[in-house]
Protein: NAD(P)H-dependent oxidoreductase
Amino acid sequence: MNVLIVYAHPEPRSLNGSLKDHAVAHLQRQGHSVQVSDLYAMGFKPLVDASDNTAQQPGLRFRVSEDSQQAYRDGTQRADIVAEQNKLRWADAVILQFPLWWFGLPAILKGWVERVYAYGFAYGVGEHSDQHWGDRYGEGSMAGKRAMLMVTTGGWASHYAPRGINGSLEAILFPIQHGILFYPGFEVLEPYVLHRTSRVDEAGFAAACTALEQRLDGLFSDAPIPYRRQNGGDYLIPELTLKPELAAGQEGIGVHLRAD
Ligand code: FAD
Structure:
């Protein structure tokens, strides 16, 4: 199978760099084809701007979504965007690998999402009407593909527990796993997480690699997070709120998980 790792760390000799190298070697040993988008090494441009549409007329107002749509439709996107979209088309599974920085993605990886996820490619897909709010949240251009986060944190696991001071990791990663991955159709696996990174010594690194190998071995067989599909009948249309009889009396991100 084809695996794309989108990797965001500025230092190849970092813990993340070592984990990335280990993941690539392990996946290749299992017979998978692997591509890595090493965003810092590529000097990936993270800022959305008018130059992303090579047909942008000088002096015209830059309209971010509309220009993205037009460039995608007319084949006038910048080459670096097209290359990353082609890698996504090629991949059967996508891994986003990053250190947790300020409770989210490093800016370069957020910029990759903003530029590569073009209008018509990752959003604005499918019929949009009061009866059908597009093909998204379980449908869309990435349907049939799998995705997983590989995340390291300075904080301890307990800091990210449901009652931990940082808020639960599930809640912190929800915008990425549900909003960035499930939205265009990926089946999202539970994340691979390595906490308390400053304490990782040789033994800790070996244990982290073993745990990582197990997760990589399940990339195409582990059950995904059971997010509810937008067009699966669980939501009122067009309000897009969960039907009142489902998870009755409950609120919060947990209601978007199927109980079965
Ligand atoms: P490194 O610093 O490269 O390494 C960590 C440890 O692993 C070191 O002790 C190193 O010796 C060891 N190591 C590295 N490679 C190996 C190897 N091959 N074998 C054995 N040991 C090895 N943390 C949070 O929890 N929440 C946040 O919101 C948050 N925000 C941050 C914001 C910024 C801007 C920064 C810089 C850090 C933040 N952190 C946060 C901490 C951050 O998540 C960790 O620093 C990061 O996950 C560590 O990953 P690294 O690859 O940079 O590790």
